[in-house]
Amino acid sequence: MVTDGPGVFRLINMNSVTKTYQGKNGPFNAVDKVSLKVEENEIFGLIGESGAGKSTLLRFINALESPTEGYVSVDDTDVFNLSRKQLRQHQKGIGMIFQQFNLLNNKSVRENIQLPLELHKYEKPLTVEEVLAFVGLPDKADNYPSQLSGGEKQRVGIARALITRPKILLCDEPTSALDESTTEEIVDVLKRAHEAFDMTILVVTHELNVIKRMCRRCAVLEKGRLIDIIDIAPKTRKQSYKSYHDRVLKVLKNG
Length: 255
Ligand SMILES: Nc1ncnc2c1ncn2[C@@H]1O[C@H](COP(=O)(O)OP(=O)(O)OP(=O)(O)O)[C@@H](O)[C@H]1O
Known about the structure:
One of its GO terms (cellular component) is plasma membrane. Belongs to the ABC transporter superfamily. This protein is of the alpha/beta class. The protein has a domain at 102-165. It has helices at residues 54-61, 84-92, 109-119, 128-134, 150-162, 180-197, 208-214, 244-254; strands spanning 10-23, 26-39, 43-47, 69-74, 77-78, 94-98, 168-172, 200-205, 217-222, 225-231. Helix 3 (109-119) packs parallel to helix 5 and helix 5 packs parallel to helix 6 (180-197). Adenosine-5'-triphosphate binds at residues 21, 30, 48, 50-56, 206.
């Protein structure tokens, strides 16, 4: 076990990860030598403007993307040096929720939530009733996605992620398709899930208030580079708005 002091366990460790893509004008680094550590049970944010590399970085953790260079470990295990069986096991411990919910429209809420259990065998999954009650939709099991509001669809997305009892939950812009009050409700569901299921949560978003309400720390990315890791504390500090990074600091530290 890797520790950073008493009671602090680094669950996720990224060391100088780079992802190079071919762009119109040649190769470019969507993620550029990023190193960061996320502690077990933390809610950690990744923020930055569109194209900053947030989603790419998030997707390294469950190996949906692989870095061109660098090292990613989860629980002390190199994510990109696993057998197929080990990789499946690794991915089974990670849930994901998406901006556009990714529900199958021809399947009922119950069928959507059960999908992960059809793909893999889990030791102690929750039941559809349990997760639906948790996200506040106890009566919607037989509805179809087209009969739900955006906020309800995201609750179903969260229920689908929770049914396997993941150790890590990756949230890619979980509230970006929702209005302000629905966003608050979804943030509350995620915070309750964090407490109830003892998970580590990573949240990618460009919404600073979501970060402020949920996270203890967040990484700021700009053009693939890690600019800062901010400890989010309600202290008042004078900041100016010279750059995007300055605005982030202002909202998160002073708001
Ligand atoms: N498969 C790909 N091939 C080429 N370029 C890609 C590919 N995937 C992502 N990119 C580019 O890499 C950069 C980072 O993308 P990424 O989706 O990680 O950013 P992001 O910060 O999550 O952005 P957004 O907030 O808009 O989703 C962008 O310029 C994007 O266009």
